[in-house]
Amino acid sequence: MTSKTTNKLSPEVRVRAVRMLLEHEGEHPLRWAEIMSISAKIGCVAQMLNEWVEKVELDSGRKPGLTTDIAAKLKTLERENWELREANEILRKASAYFAQALSENAYIRPSGKKTARAHALWRSTGGRMQVRPGRDHNAHLRMFCLA
Question: What's the CATH number of domain 11-65, 1.10.287.3510, 1.10.10.10, 1.20.1050.10, 1.10.579.10?
Answer without folding.
Answer: 1.10.10.10
